[in-house]
Amino acid sequence: MNKPNPTTVTPATNFIRNIVEADLAAGKYAQRRWAGQPGLAAAHAQAPLDPAKIRTRFPPEPNGYLHFGHAKSICLNFGLAQQFGGRCHLRFDDTNPEKEDQEYVDSIIEAVRWLGFDWQDEQENNLYYASDYFAWMLTCAEYLIQTGHAYVDSQSAEDMRRTRGTLTEPGQDSPYRNRSVAENLDLFRRMQAGEFPDGAHVLRAKIDMASPNINLRDPAIYRIRHVAHHNTGDRYCVYPMYTFAHPIEDALENITHSICTLEFEDQRPFYDWLLERLAEGGLLQRPLPQQYEFSRLNLSYVVLSKRKLIQLVEERHVSGWDDPRMPTLVGARRRGYTPEGFKLLMERIGVSKAESLIDYSLLEDCMRETMNELDERRIAVLDPVKLIITNYPEGQSELCQAPNHPLKPELGKRDIPFGRELWIEREDFMEVPSKGYNRLFPGNMARLKYGYVVKCTGCEKDDAGRVTAVLCEYLPDTKSGTPGADRVKVKGNLHWVSVAHAYPAEVRLYDRLFKVAAPGAGERDFLADLNPDSCRRITAQLEPALRQALPEQRFQFERHGYFVADRVDSRPGAPVFNRSVTLKDSWGKNA
Ligand code: ATP
Ligand code: MG
Description:
Elements: H1 15-25, H2 41-45, E1 55-58, H3 68-83, E2 87-92, H4 102-114, E3 127-129, H5 134-146, E4 150-153, H6 157-162, H7 181-192, E5 202-205, E6 220-224, E7 238-240, H8 242-252, E8 257-261, H9 268-280, E9 290-294, H10 306-314, H11 329-335, H12 339-349, H13 360-374, E10 376-378, E11 380-381, E12 384-389, E13 397-403, E14 413-419, E15 421-425, E16 445-448, E17 453-461, E18 467-474, E19 492-494, E20 497-498, E21 503-510, E22 535-542, E23 554-557, E24 561-565, E25 577-582
Parallel strand pairs: 1-2, 2-3, 8-9, 10-23, 12-18, 16-19, 21-25
Antiparallel strand pairs: 4-5, 5-6, 6-7, 11-22, 12-15, 13-14, 15-20, 16-17, 17-18, 21-22, 23-24, 24-25
Helix pairs in contact: 8-9, 12-13
The structure holds adenosine-5'-triphosphate and magnesium ion.
């Protein structure tokens, strides 16, 4: 029966791991100092050598729930730090005052912890908020102004867009590009003091309006926004642009390897330009962080775009962010997916710059493999019909023993009650058997797993011809585990639950949320691809021990798959179960 799935792991390549190894071998970051907290070069310079061999970071914007794609970034960044004696920071990139929310901060913290990673140890607590760096960012901006590397532009947003040029044409210099340092500084200070309305001016880096890379055509670095920020309140009315803030955040935190997805590749020249300017001014410590880009995780049968996920929740196509069908980490957790399964998946798909679509079944395989290893076995009858053992005394019952895990005898055995009336799967009986069918049909014998061999004698039906009970006789000297029990050879091996002892429970059979591999491909609305059968609720008959299942406890229901006690809807003594994933091999092959 449940043999472990073959673990054919081809060690996937991870080019960033190779870079880190080479950097460590070359001692590239060995001389960095670390003040114990983020800071400008002067603060770090006084401090001892950085005890962390490398520093990485996971920098979510707290404007949504984390999804499976984020798990790739988390596993990569925290994984590298673990592997190489480094540290990984959890940094909330909360420099945009409009979109952030504490609800998201809390859920992100919980999700990263759930995946099994930590930013805190005895020495350090590397949980940071980019908005705590606003004062340093202003210092950096003013330094750029003072050295002629930034200017205040007073063109309208539309004029700026118009004069930016295109991929083939250079941009044009702004008429404000040659303002004096004094005028720029004065204007920028007045911007900070709140003298101007939103959009009246922006601060721009002064680089090259003719650069072939549009990102180097004097990118905006500060804008006026008269809005309160969740962390800094009304203290600021100018806010840094992401492309300016992010490199500085990395440098302040002593990040060595700043890992991001491919769409930031074109931003790297600005990243390097900015940090180089600030390091030559003595504001930032060298060696500077270096940005590396990898291709994001794309998965079939799901959508990972924040916009689409929000739409699914807001239009109530799912019950919430933590709906077990959602590709969010809160959804995965409720579905019963394992952190180990995510780590296995990320290890298997590797890290590269090649765009690829990962098949959802690969994720399911990884979940199954980890669950097969971790989860105890239990018995559940999902589509019950009664089996009556006519030669077993009425009112009598006895105990059978079932191993908790076939691969781990150390997990012991448990008792399951047996009696005259049992629940079996409706499909385990056929009045007229099809070819090769070897479960119950009149005249045939099969084993009740962990119990006795029975011989089917017939069935009872209602007026509509539907089977209401299957009838059989048991062979008293065939009880599993007793001497000579396997004297009678049978092919079918059925699971069952005693009617008198069963726990009837709600079980949700989840399937993929979308019925096609690429939801919304072409011009189609992705909602048109929703799978109408992605959740089926049934009442199943479970072995009595499952009454005591605690929220989030997972089991393999033999022959069916892996199930978890729902962490939201379960009540003490009355858990409801979610199907996490089916068994790989359809049980029909084994029966
Ligand atoms: P947006 O920026 O549109 O709000 P986002 O998905 O980029 O959405 P962030 O909070 O900025 O959200 O992401 C945090 C980190 O997760 C980033 O470093 C980002 O590159 C990474 N990330 C996001 N989506 C994926 C993905 N599909 N695969 C791998 N990494 C991802
Ligand atoms: Mg982003």
